[in-house]
Amino acid sequence: MTKWHDLLKEEGKPPDWPYPIRYEEEQEIETDVLVIGGGIAGCWAAISAARKGATVALVEKGDTIRSGAGGPGCDHWCNVPANPLSNVDPDEWAQHMAESMYSNGIGTQIQCREDYDALLEMEQMGGKLRDTGDEYVGAQGRDEKTKFMISPRYTRVHSYIPGSQKPRTFKSNPDQKLNNVVIRVWGTTFKPALKKECQRLGVKIYDRVMVTSLLTEGGIQGARVVGVTGFNNRTGEFMVFKSKAAVLAAAGNFSLWMLNTELAGYNTFRSRNSTGDGVAMAWRAGAALTLMERTGIMMLGTGYKHTWYGGAGDASYENVQLVDANGKKLPWPTQGWADAGAMRPTPEDMEKISRGVQTGEYALPFYGDFPAMPDIERRATWNLMLGEESTTKIIIDTYNKAGFDPSKHLLQNYNFIEGTSPSQWRTAGGGGPVLDWDLKSTLDGLYVAGEQTFSAGDHSYAAATGRYAGRKAADYSQQVGEPKISKEQVALEKARAYAPIKRSDGIEWKELHAGIARAMQYFCSEYKTESLLNMGLDTLRDIEENHVPRLYALDPHKLMRSLEDLSLLTHGQIILQASLARKASSRMLNFFRIDHPEVDPPEWNKFVTVKLENGKVKAGELPLTYWGNLKDNYEAHNKDYQGVCKG
Amino acid sequence: MAQEKVYAIPNITTPNTPVIFNPDICNGCNQCVEVCQIDVFIPNPEKGKPPIILHPEECWYCGCCVNDCRRPGAITFNWPLQQRGYWKDKSTGKVFRA
Fold first, then answer.
1. CATH value at residue B38
2. Considering the domain boundaries, does residue B79 fall inside one?
C-alpha cells in the first residue's frame, strides 16, 4: 500500500493532507544575510557569510540535505588550476576560459582562484576528495602523495569538441605537460556535509519554503533589496524575511519549453523545481539581466536519464571507447587520457560517422566498450566517476543489480537511434543578473551566485561563487542601516501569491505550464523574427490577463507549482524582450533571427541587457569584457581574502 | 470471493511508480520523504508504514531516497519502462535490458 489509490481502496477515502494547513498564519524573520536557495551555491554562501559573523537565514524549496542540481553528488571538481598538481597558472587558465565569447569572466576568475580553497574546506567539513582507501592505486592521474585523482578532462584539449579551439601553449606550461586542472571527487558526501556545517555555524535553515518575491526599499522597483516573501510549500504559511543583504542562489530554468510536465524532471538533468524563480523575481524587482536571449537545445536522455553532452551519450564517459554493433571502433573521442579530454567528435568525424551509419559501415546501435578498458580505469570510471556524479549513482546501482558487469558487458549508447534532429524543446540558456566584482547585481543589497550568475559553470563554480558572494554580502550587511520593508508591497505580493488557493476551478498548473511552453515553442524557437517574437509576447500577455486569473491550486504543493508557472511566464517574457533587443544572429548564443541573418557581426559582439524601470522594459548593453583585467580586478577587490578557513 | 469495491477515480498519472517499497523492511522512518527535494512522497497516515507516493510524475529520478535509505532493501528503484537501458554480452552477443 504505497500508492494514493491503494490507500483509497483501503480507507474508502483519499488521505488527508499530511501537514497542518496554515494559509492564514504569517512569520516575520530578521537576518543580516538572507540566502535564497539551498543548493551548492546557497549552502556555500550561507557558510561563508556565517563565518564572517553575520546572522544568516537560508531558504530552500526542498530540503537542504539533498536539494539542488548538485544535491545527489558530484564527480568532478572542475577548473581547479590552483591545485598543487596543476601545471598551469590559475590566472592564465581563467583568462583562457574567459576568452570564450559570452562567458562570465568574473565568475571564472573567482572559480580559478578560489575553488581549490573551497575544496579543502569541503574536506574539513567531511567531504571525501582523496583516494585514502587506496582503491584506485595504479589509475592514471592518481597522485600517491596527495591521493588526489586527476581527471583526464581538459588535460590538453579544453573543449568538448576537439579542434574547436586553437591549440594553445600556456606560458605557465611551456613544456605542454598535462594541465591537471580537474580533480575527481567523492561528491555524494558533499551535500549532507554542507547542511551539517550550516547548522554548526548557526545558519537558520528554512526548508520547504519557496521564495516568491524580492522586497525593495519603499516597494520601489530598482531600489535596495531589503527582504523577501515566501511560503511553506507543505503548510502554506506565509513568511516575510527582512534582510540587510540577500544572495540569490536559486536554480536555473529547465522546463520553459517542455510541453509535457512529466518530462520536466526525469529527462532533463535538472529537477522539477528548476523553474527560474530567481531570475523572475530579480526582474520584477528591477535588476538588469543579460544573455536572456540565449537558449540551449534540450536533448532528452534515454536509457535511464542522465543526459550528457548531446543526449544519451551514456556510454561515452571518460576513457570508454565507443564501438558499433559489430565491435568496430568509432572515431568518437573517449574524453579520456587517449584524446586528452575531448568529449564530442569533430564536425568532420561526426559527418564520417553519420555517413558510415547510412552506408552500413557502422552498425547501430553503438556501445561503450567497458570490457576493453584496463581494469583500474574501468573501476575509476564506473565506480568512482559514475558512482559519485549527480544522478548517476542510482543508475549504476540499477545496472549492477540487474546483472550488468562492466568487465564483460558493452553498455548501449543511444546516439542516432533516438534521432539526430535538434529538439524544439529548448532550455533557457543561462542568462541572469548583470553582476560586478562583488558578485553584486545592479540592485543594492542583492548578490548572486551559482546558476543565477549568467554563463554559470558547474559544481565547483557554484561552490566558489557562493562562497564569494556570501562573504561580500556579509561585508555589506555590516555597513548598511536597518532594512525597512513596505507593508503595502508585502500585502500586494501576498494577494498575488495566494490567489490560486481561493479558487477550486479554472485552470490548473499543468495546463498553464503546457500553454506557456507551447507559446515559447511557436514564437521563440529555432526561427525568430520580430513579428513572431511580438506574437509570443501577445500570447503570454493573453495568458497573463485571461488565464492566470483562473489559476487554481488545491493544496500548498500545487500552489508552489502554480507560482513556479508564473515564474516561467515571466521568464518567457524576459527572453522574448531580450530576443527583440538583439538585432543580429549569433552562433555562440544559439540565436538566429531571420530578419537579422548576419551571424555574430562585430558591432553586436556585446552583452545585451534588459531591465524594468517603472514597469517599462529598458534595453542596454555592456562590452564583452566589461570586467576589465581579471587578475588585477580580482586582487583589487579581495585584498582582505583569508584563503582556506581555519577550522 | 467478495467483489472488490470500484471507485470512480481519474486516470493514474504516468509514470507512477518511481520506487517500490518493501513493507516488511521499511519501518516508516520517512527519511526518504525528507531527502526528496520535490516531495514525491508524503508520510503514511499510519505510523511505521511506508510513505505514500503522492507526486510520482514529478520525480526526477535522482535516487536520493534509495541512496540515503537507512534500511537496505526497504525501497527499490523502479525506472519508467521507456527509460530502461540495454547492454550486450561482449562474448555471446546476447542483449539484455534492465
1. 3.30.70.20
2. yes
